[in-house]
Amino acid sequence: MSEFLSNDYLLYPPYPPASTLAQWLEESNGITRQIFSSISIADQVVPQINILNPPLWELGHLTWFHEFWVHRDGQESKPSFMKNADYLFNSSEMAHQDRWSTPMPSLDSVLEYNHSVIESIQELLRATIDNKVAYFIQLAILHQDMHNEAFAYMWQTMGRPIPFAPFSPFTKESELETNSQTWIHFPKSTIQAGSEQGSGFIFDNEKWAHSIDLPAFDIASTPVTNGDYLEFLESPGNLAQSSPVAPPFHWKKEGDVWLERIFNQWLPLNHAAAVRHISYLDAQRFCERNQVRLPNEHELSLLMSQKQGAWQSSNLWEWTSSTFVPFPGFSADPYVDYSQPWFDGNYQVLKGGSSFTPDRLRRVAFRNFYQGQRSDHFCGFRTCLL
Ligand SMILES: [Fe+2]
Q1: Are 252 and 259 in contact (CB under 8 A)?
Q2: In this protein, which residues make up the domain named Sulfatase-modifying factor enzyme-like (predicted)?
Q3: Which domains, from first to last, does the chain contain?
Q4: 150 CA distance to ligand 1 centroid (A)?
Q5: How close is the Cα of 310 to the center of ligand 1, in Å?
Q6: What is the Cα–Cα distance from 248 to 238, expressed in whole angstroms?
Q7: pLDDT, tens digit, for every residue of 253-296?
Q8: Cβ-count burial of 168 within 10 angstroms (0-12 exposed, 13-18 middle, 19+ buried)?
Q9: Nearest to residue 245, comparing CAs of 261, 234, 257?
Q10: Which element (helix H / strand E) includes 48?
Q11: Could you tell me the distance, in angstroms and rounded to a whole number, from the CA of residue 195 to the centre of ligand 1?
């Protein structure tokens, strides 16, 4: 892998100063290590389903990612701190189902591997680094941030205690001011989608900046709330369907009271909070029933970039009606499996960021993507008028 398909990544500076990268790395790896500081043998076992990963494998994988790109130049021929690291922890080579059946090193040895790799990156950051190294260090930190968030939603899926403190309000404080819910009007405009060269670190799916003519639209100032969604679920129109939309997996009804599970705690459903863990498919059905539509990725980007007074963040990844496709000028960056394999029409773009997403990943141009049937990650949605 010494010859990359594209050298575009050399066009991504400026990078944050080395001291900032060092701080981000310490923070991100600190969160990972915090998760594993209290993990029991039982916690290391998770069911073999496609939305989960064995936690130990994930720790090895995110550590391997730092080492492979920063220290080994993306080349398997260069030595690793851990024997068989490529075979065990390269997600492009280790099939998902094999992560349960392949014998793994002990937790202690993977933690030791993590310590050695991260310490040697911190050492690099204490010296002078060039743009190429800065790119791979930032890539690996952001990759680790994504895996930290994946630990959080995996723990939510399994009803485990919250694994680390969220970056922004997650429970009671996330109550929205629903009284001020309004439609924000955007006149017809031409906007820039994607990212430009020289604007700092970007992912390959943001290449390149291009103009989009956007017709006028009206978008909700607030995301759809639990109260809105419950009304939809219990509406005669939904109940009359041959297969009505079911409540989210973390809801249950006891007597007349709806409860929602937040990690390992069942709490009364907060009607004023943004509804979460809704799949794209169910969000679409909500929209059809309520005669509204999901925004596309450009409309949601415009809303987020303008930070209009009435706009209220959901602290969730918000679904868009945009299928994840390459922008004009796309070419894969060295980590070729980041975007390219997922341009198959089965993924939808999400924008924003959850309470478990650090600010460095909450750029307006960032394009998250998940399969439309998934609802285990921290996702929600807002609507536009037809
Ligand atoms: Fe990964």
Answers
A1: yes
A2: 191-300, 315-383
A3: 8-158 (1.20.120.450), 172-385 (3.90.1580.10)
A4: 10
A5: 36
A6: 14
A7: 999 999 999 999 999 999 999 999 999 999 999 999 999 999 99
A8: middle
A9: 234
A10: none
A11: 23
